[in-house]
């Protein structure tokens, strides 16, 4: 994530747009080839896969995803979401982050006048945008890191997210997921792409020793599902410090300790995490050895 942010902030917009267009064309061509060869995944295939990797009825499951990494899926985002919903069942809860911002929080918040929970689209991929638009989905009212949920406890997971002045504290869906013994599925992405759950530790410990948040706080307007307006104050990440992240270097520790396992969903390398163990281990190893996403070997910054 840090490298991508650095590249984005130092590359002219027209070059970024040209690269994205080229990359999308290349990906679409590869998916079309898979379709022509009959290398196709269905909802039933995905349900079987999710069951095999350890998703069970009643799970509280938060999903980060890349549709194109899975391969050609008959039915697209709908098929993936249907398979996930059927896998967790009526007694489970499915959550997906769907921030309108895919770049630096600081750049985004400086230009944000009002976060509209209904109309601000997800910038985190086709699966998340399809999911948040489902009529039964409830979206948390946080301007930088909203999360949508479908399930019997959707209101619990999304309620009051905006009341903390950081996105990952005790009212956040990530923290609540950990406390409810939930799971996190990274389909075709990794901690470097989607390390939001790692930030829970930074907000959970007293006086986290690194300046991960920008010194200035920002006041923004929010428009809820009924069109009502409110105002909150929130912190955002310090981009200079964000550039020091080495999230994926934590993966060997998480796998060794049984916090995560590497699996596959279609063609996508995938990681399944125990959210509670993830938070507990991050707090433990931070306090014992100084391990963070910035210091994955426990070394001090600058060493």
UniProtKB/TrEMBL annotation:
Catalytic activity: a 2-deoxystreptamine antibiotic + acetyl-CoA = an N(3)-acetyl-2-deoxystreptamine antibiotic + CoA + H(+)
GO molecular function, one term: aminoglycoside 3-N-acetyltransferase activity
Keyword annotations from UniProtKB, A to Z: Acyltransferase, Antibiotic resistance, Transferase
Key word tRNA-binding present: no
Record's keyword annotation contains Acyltransferase: yes
Protein family membership: Belongs to the antibiotic N-acetyltransferase family.
Protein name: Aminoglycoside N(3)-acetyltransferase
One of the protein's GO biological processes: response to antibiotic
Enzyme Commission numbers on file: 2.3.1.-
Source taxonomy: Bacteria, Pseudomonadati, Bacteroidota, Flavobacteriia, Flavobacteriales
Organism this protein belongs to: Lishizhenia tianjinensis
């Amino acid at each position: 994530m840090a490298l991508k942010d650095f590249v984005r902030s130092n590359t002219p917009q027209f070059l970024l747009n040209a690269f994205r267009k080229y990359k999308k064309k290349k990906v679409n061509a590869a998916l079309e080839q898979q379709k022509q060869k009959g290398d196709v995944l269905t909802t039933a295939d995905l349900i079987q896969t999710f069951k095999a990797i350890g998703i069970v009825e009643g799970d509280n499951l938060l999903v980060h995803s890349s549709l194109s990494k899975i391969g050609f899926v008959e039915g697209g985002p709908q098929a993936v979401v249907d398979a996930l919903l059927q896998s967790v069942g009526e007694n489970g809860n499915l959550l997906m982050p769907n921030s309108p911002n895919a770049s630096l929080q600081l750049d985004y918040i400086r230009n944000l006048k009002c976060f509209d929970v209904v109309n601000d689209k997800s910038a985190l991929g086709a699966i998340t945008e399809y999911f948040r638009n489902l009529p039964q989905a409830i979206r948390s009212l946080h301007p930088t890191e909203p999360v949508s949920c479908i399930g019997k406890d959707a209101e619990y997971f999304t309620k009051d997210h905006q009341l903390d002045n950081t996105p990952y504290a005790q009212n956040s869906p990530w923290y609540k997921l950990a406390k409810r013994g939930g799971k996190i599925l990274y389909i075709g992405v990794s901690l470097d792409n989607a390390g939001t759950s790692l930030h829970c530790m930074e907000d959970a410990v007293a006086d986290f020793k690194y300046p991960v948040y920008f010194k200035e706080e920002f006041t923004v307007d929010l428009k809820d599902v009924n069109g009502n307006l409110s105002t909150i104050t929130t912190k955002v990440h310090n981009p200079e410090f964000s550039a020091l992240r080495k999230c994926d270097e934590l993966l060997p520790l998480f796998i060794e300790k049984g916090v995560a396992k590497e699996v596959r969903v279609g063609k996508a390398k995938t990681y399944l995490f125990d959210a509670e163990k993830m938070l507990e281990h991050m707090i433990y190893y931070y306090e014992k050895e100084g391990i963070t996403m910035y210091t994955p070997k426990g070394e001090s910054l600058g060493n």
